[in-house]
Design brief:
Chain B is mostly helical and about 325 residues long. Chain B has 14 helices and no strands. Classes of the chains: A alpha/beta (about 425), B mainly alpha (about 325), C mainly alpha (about 325). Chain B: It holds the Pfam family BPD_transp_1.
């Protein structure tokens, strides 16, 4: 009995020490509180990055290249898949002043909010050497009222229409990309008309003309310089004719059964690409890599890219450096390098992220780029031309990203839940009120 | 039966009490059969129909897990075709490897292990301490305090997430593991569970004898209470561990993707830019494996533990 | 919950007279003092950790929630609190989303709890037979309990996929058209409920089984002598015999149901998860709380939803107590 007690006592002692040991691990694990994780030690510079989605720096090995060229630099990049999650975390980090990285990615839909409310947390990048090569409107999106620049542009999202040649053919539509572009030249409503023709003549069962009406909606609104906000920061979505027209046409497409009722970048969308359940998708340049990967080698050569009715910019991001960072200078150099023309051109070639650098747009590897997967389409020319059509002034608003999501959901209401466009608009309106309140 | 000294009216008593009555024997000796009642249950042999129905139930329980494995072992094209695959494909290891990297599951598992381990250990320790005090020590306000413990069961901690989040952010604990651990260091159910066990399994004479020997309370706790309390402590540990490992709401709010627990890391697989379905399933499989292994090894003990004490967070 | 707090017989060890008698001396006196301090103080020290942690991380936040709910607080500027009185409450009262979420929480709660407990009862009855391989069946029934919400919801989301999911494929064998599980309100709520049912049925069955095994066999024998069939025995002996456990599981499942969060969040995938579908068709109160706080970044409004959830719980408990009392009076 006594012996048994003693063993158990040692065990308890062991358990107690285990608790305290674990507690120690835990508290040590949080040793970087307040900092950004980066720093200098023994001649090595560590730079941390917080990224989201497929910005490509890590995925294409650009960061490795940089580290090879700068042996004293170690880069640690965290990539969050979902921008919404990423941004919520960034907000709390900004509020707490901890958990931030040296470099943070900024999505275009958040650019305004950050430059309005958090500008003092970001380093002013206005004077950084060799950064005068961007498209003028790109940098103006992250320039504050007092001319501070909180980020450098990575990519932009000029739009085209990706389509399946084989599906067009069986529906009696042209398949050549020039002729296809002519089908809807200059007017998005012609794109919907083509869809109606497709629907009437298609022999393929269960193949829709487009994946979702929200792609069409986004393409239309981003062709204008104002979407949800005006320059004074007032909400104008309810009266903005650009938004109204886009809503009308997108809901027309939805109610006439032209869509596959899929949500872009959600799981049902991929198999739709692979199995060919829709014939077109409005595609910003960065979407091409995704389509080719998910549609798979079996569909190589079936897809092609045609010019969109009107130029527009969907998406694009920035890289900012945090004021708190102990390695500000090194981080700025890294950001400048990552957004330099050569690197932008490289990213375009690798994953299709279209350069926001004017200089890069003139580089031969961009201008002459062709896509094997998309039937040899001259994507450099197509997206380059689209980029020229993007309005020179683009007004951003604080809750752009959130409002865009709410509109997508509103269109889903019509598309998949048989709500009338009027009902869906009402709901959307109410939700925006809550989201900005 | 030696539990008659405690008056319990079976019909009105809560299940814990009833079960504890059977679960405890004063000597603390381990019983062979955890849940056999000499005069109860197990009246009939099962007929073929019962086996068929149980087989169906087992199938429903296990099939989703089996299918997770199947989906994780195919590639993306196969898994999105109809009819869906029913047999494993050749890509299991490859997908597991990719998912391991993509969702940062290695870090997530270590985090979960730390979180669940610390919570389970501290819950067991504090519950046994408090349970012993409530069961065997006399002090002013004991009954009121015990009622208070029971009352706290009705307050789900999730309701305080907003201030808790603000607190943790202010303390600089946002996105850190202590933020997940602190609020769940103790459990009211655990305290009550240990109290019920000890008030029946621990003879007063033993404690008194300890006092006569001049032992102080902590010594009595260590050398007399703990040996006897080991079986329920093990049960409480396992169940708390499972709950802490699977806890979602609060970790999801306070942690982020750079420092997640397993359930939080898994959400990353489904949200955002699409990954392969087979990779999502591989991640889900990986995230489930540690507990699954625990259930395969300790299944019998866990089943016994749950039947002994209704502990559910 | 009626939880008995029967205490051990009176001569509890704590009151036992201090042992060391006989020779006096200073050391002796000091140790007696220490001993007395130990006997008096130790119990409080032993229960203190529980109360300290509870007060700091449960009670204080609960109270503070109500204070926050009277303010406008944004996530990015947590230290700026602007007093708004009851505005958040009136806004919540007028908000369709709140009533919708409340209703969804209730319907999903019913859809998940009722079948779950009924099936658990049946399963427990089966497990209560004399079985070969009973351990296997018990462990198998409990396996889903080992699966985290995250993993379970991911798998079920895929099984319920519209275009290539296993469930739609099976239904198509019976000529059923593909169901849009996510967009159709009742389909979505059913699918989400099925995740809950899958995870918790086995667990509840084991609780019932434990209670069933405590029913004295002579009650069955008496019923058999009275000519009761097996089914009648089940209704008249088994079910009343485990009544208190049934009440207990109802209480626990109800608490769980009011806080449903992970299952619908993951089921919706991405932005639809937080809003509980494009039409909020499966948004629960837990999701609404999250949307207000961590998507709209309005912590004051999130705190208001938390309070509403708390009130809901209280109402449920009051109703449950009343029903129980009325039932007891009738019996």
């Amino acid at each position: 009995m006594d012996k048994c007690r003693r063993t158990s006592r040692t065990r308890v002692a062991a358990a107690v020490s285990a608790v305290s040991a674990l507690g120690l691990i835990v508290s040590c694990g949080g040793s970087d509180s307040g900092g950004t994780g980066g720093g200098k030690k023994d001649g090595t510079v560590t730079i941390t990055m917080g990224l989201f989605g497929v910005m490509g720096f890590k995925e294409t090995g650009l960061l490795d290249t940089y580290m090879k060229e700068h042996p004293n630099v170690v880069i640690k990049a965290d990539v969050a898949g979902d921008e919404q999650t990423y941004y919520t975390a960034l907000q709390t980090h900004l509020a707490a002043g901890s958990g931030l990285k040296d470099i943070q990615g900024i999505e275009i839909g958040r650019a305004k909010e950050l430059s309005d409310t958090q500008q003092d947390k970001f380093v002013d990048l206005a004077g950084v050497a060799g950064t005068d090569h961007f498209l003028p409107w790109k940098q103006s999106q992250v320039t504050t009222a007092d001319k501070k620049v909180i980020g450098l542009g990575t990519d932009i999202g000029p739009m085209a229409v990706c389509y399946r040649k084989d599906l067009f053919e069986q529906a009696g539509l042209p398949t050549d990309r020039e002729e296809v572009a002519e089908l809807w030249e200059g007017d998005w409503s012609k794109y919907v008309d083509a869809g109606k023709r497709f629907k009437q003549n298609s022999k393929a069962d269960k193949v829709a003309f487009m994946d979702t009406s929200s792609g069409l909606f986004n393409a239309m609104i981003y062709g204008n310089s104002q979407q949800f906000y005006d320059k004074e920061g007032e909400l104008i979505y309810a009266t903005n004719p650009a938004v109204k027209d886009a809503w009308k046409l997108a809901s027309e497409a939805a109610t006439s059964g032209l869509t596959a009722k899929l949500r872009q970048f959600q799981p049902g969308w991929d198999p739709g690409l692979a199995n060919g359940t829709f014939a077109t998708a409005v595609c910003p340049a960065w979407m091409l890599a995704h389509i080719s990967e998910k549609a798979g080698p079996a569909n190589k050569g079936k897809w092609d890219v045609a010019k969109a009715p009107k130029g527009a910019n969907w998406g694009g991001s920035f890289l900012g450096v945090m004021e708190k960072s102990p390695v500000k200078k090194e981080a700025q150099e890294l950001v400048a390098w990552l957004t330099a023309p050569e690197q932008q051109a490289y990213l375009f070639k690798e994953i299709g992220n279209f350069p926001s650098s004017q200089t890069a747009l003139g580089l031969p590897e961009v201008v002459d780029a062709k896509s094997d997967y998309f039937s040899g389409a001259p994507i450099g020319k197509i997206f380059g031309a689209a980029a020229q059509e993007i309005p020179d002034e683009q007004v951003l608003g604080r809750k752009d990203g959130t409002i865009k999501d709410i509109f997508s959901q509103g269109l889903t209401l019509i598309e998949a839940q048989n709500k009338s466009p009027e009902q869906a608009w009402k709901t959307t309106d109410k939700r925006i009120g809550k989201a900005v309140g | 039966m030696t539990t008659d000294s405690i008056p319990v009216r079976a019909a009105d008593a809560p299940p814990e009490t009833v079960r504890m009555k059977r679960g405890a024997t004063p000597s603390g000796a381990r019983r062979r059969r955890l849940f056999a009642h000499p005069r109860a249950g197990r009246q009939h042999h099962a007929g073929p129909l019962a086996y068929i129905l149980l087989g169906i139930a087992a199938l429903f329980s296990l099939f989703p897990l089996y299918w997770t494995m199947v989906a994780a072992s195919t590639d993306n094209t196969r898994v999105t075709q109809t009819p869906p695959p029913f047999l494993p494909g050749p890509h299991l290891l490859e997908n597991l490897g990719k998912a391991w990297q993509d969702a940062a599951l290695g870090k997530a598992m270590l985090n979960s292990l730390i979180v669940a381990g610390v919570i389970a250990l501290s819950t067991v320790l504090f519950a046994t301490l408090a349970g012993f005090a409530f069961a065997k020590l006399r002090f002013k306000g004991r009954n009121i305090l015990l009622m208070l413990v029971i009352g706290t069961m009705l307050v789900p901690p999730q309701l305080g997430v907003v201030p808790l989040f603000m607190m943790m952010t202010e303390l600089g604990l946002g996105q850190k593991l202590p933020a997940v651990i602190f609020p769940t260091l103790v459990s009211a159910v655990g305290v009550f569970f240990m109290r019920q066990y000890l008030s029946e399994a621990l003879p007063d004479e033993l404690v008194e004898a300890g006092r006569v020997d001049g032992a102080h309370s902590l010594r009595i706790f260590w050398s007399i209470v703990l040996p006897i309390a080991r079986p329920p402590m093990a049960v409480l540990f396992m169940i708390t561990f499972v709950h802490a490992w699977n806890d979602f709401f609060w970790p999801f709010i306070v942690l982020d993707m750079s420092n997640p627990t397993v359930p939080v890391a898994l959400t990353q697989l489904s949200a955002g830019y699409v990954r392969d379905q087979s990779l999502i399933m591989a991640g889900a499989l990986l995230g489930t494996l540690p507990l699954l292994a625990m259930f395969i090894i300790f299944g019998r003990q866990i089943v016994g533990g749950i039947m002994q004490g209704a502990v559910k967070g | 919950m009626a939880i008995s707090t029967s205490t051990p017989s009176d001569g509890a060890p704590g009151t036992a007279p201090s042992a060391g008698t006989g020779t006096g001396g200073d050391g002796q006196r000091r140790s007696t003092l220490l001993h007395r301090l130990d006997v008096r103080g130790a119990p409080y020290a032993f229960v203190a950790p529980f109360f300290v942690v509870f007060a700091a991380f449960s009670f204080y936040p609960l109270i503070y929630t109500s204070w926050i709910s009277l303010h406008r607080v944004e996530l990015s500027t947590l230290n700026l609190m602007e007093w708004v009185g009851f505005d958040n409450y009136t806004a919540l009262w007028d908000d369709d989303r709140f009533w919708n979420a409340l209703l969804n929480t209730i319907t999903i709660g019913v859809l998940s709890t009722v079948p779950q407990l009924l099936m658990a009862l049946g399963l427990a009855h089966l497990l209560n037979y004399r079985l070969r391989g009973s351990t296997f069946f018990r462990v198998a029934a409990l396996t889903p309990y080992a699966t985290s919400v995250g993993a379970a919801a991911l798998v079920f989301t895929m099984l319920f996929e519209r275009d290539f999911g296993m469930i739609n494929w099976m239904l198509s064998l019976f000529g059923v058209e593909n169901i849009d599980w996510e967009n159709n309100k009742w389909a979505a709520q059913t699918a989400i409920s099925s995740i809950v049912i899958w995870r918790w049925t086995g667990y509840n069955a084991l609780l019932y089984l434990a209670a069933m095994q405590a029913i004295p066999r002579d009650r069955y024998e008496a019923a058999a002598i009275d000519g009761a069939s097996r089914w009648q025995q089940f209704l008249m002996v088994t079910v009343p015999g485990i009544r208190s456990t049934i009440v207990f599981t109802i209480v626990l499942s109800t608490i769980g149901a009011t806080q449903l969060f992970g299952e619908p969040l993951i089921f919706g995938q991405g932005p639809n998860g937080i809003t509980g579908g494009a039409d909020n068709q499966y948004q629960t109160l837990g999701l609404l709380l999250y949307e207000e706080g961590w998507k709209n970044y309005q912590m004051g409004r999130a705190a208001t939803v938390a309070w509403a959830m708390f009130l809901l719980l209280i109402v449920v408990f009051v109703v449950q107590r009343v029903v129980q009392r009325v039932a007891a009076r009738k019996a």
